[in-house]
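Database export, one record per block. Field names are fixed; values are copied verbatim from the stored entry.
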Amino acid sequence: MSTSASTLAFVESPVQLLNTLEWAYARGTTADRPLDGVPSQRGRRAAGRAAEPGPRPAGTLAPLRIVVLPPTDPMSRGQLRRMAALARDEGCDVQWQEARGSRLAPLRALAALAGDVRAARTVVIGDPFSRYVQLLLTLVRSEELVVVDDGTATMEFVAQTARGERLVRWHRVGGGGLPGRVRELAYAPVSAAARRHFVPDRAAGRGAERRVELFTSMPVAPCGGMTLRANEFAWTRARFGPPRLTRGTDLVGSSLVETGVVDPDRYLDAVRSLALEHGATRYFAHRRESPEKLRALSRATGLEIVRPDLPLELIARRGPVGRTILSFPSTVVHTLPYALTGTGVTVAVCDVDPAWLTGSAPPRARSFLAGVTDTARDVHRLPAQAAPGAG
């Protein structure tokens, strides 16, 4: 077991780990606001003068300890191991903590982490919807809580927090029948306690000094007294690239089929139409896409299926990458323009036609996906007549 750290981060996906590194880089380059309250030697030298603009060299991350709580699927675990190696290269203390896979794993992990969670002065989390993270939050006594991006889920987190609602992922369908409702009822006190942590003490009228920061690339406004720090992927741009550009077009895969939102046949038709119309040659698979679906896509479209070993922001920044990247509504239409700024790459987004939605898709699916597209910055929106499967 590592010694206690005053700044402790919990991540469950490769993207959350990447955004934690981005947060540490952004915080580490702020000389007048040291992470743990004690200026570093570099911070003391920089005190009293304005921070220099533009990206700084890699290796300037503010110190923190990252606890990886890996999921069970192999693709996510593989990407997390690669991201953990990058974090260690940047000087981070990384702990791999299994919290899934058996009935006792969550309890063992909780027992192993409880003391460090209580001692931490700053706690960073990547998934406020995670039940395991919510359970950990009941132990948090920190002066500061930071929420880093978990993709477009951040938009729903902010909206639900502003309305004081229970935190539920937008694409969750059904309730698992009576057993699911019983589990929800039993878990309700933990969820409610976790929600209260996202309201700063002063805003909640508690008179204390605990702060809540949101670190995000998403187009959201802070609510309930949260502070906002923009994630512009400065660490990624300082560490990698710029990429070599190919003449082709790359297509980014989506897990909307796996979450039950989009019909598999409609999705295959959409990918085939996009590939033909735009001359796409490569398909960057989402880490949750099933092997069976990807084999069917390869047979139907002739696309080269690429299973990235790192988040797409890093893959694209390292290159080679197409001059045009096509995507359905997803996180990357917000993050890639930051990561690829100044490279000449065009990011284009194709709307999801309502006809593609499954009968079990949640009522909010159409408006949520449209909102992801409508709020994206610096992306090319494909005209309606170019949207495959429309009508």
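Remark 1: Residues 31-56, 384-391 have pLDDT under 50 and may be disordered.
Remark 2: The first strand starts at residue 7 and ends at 11.
End of record.
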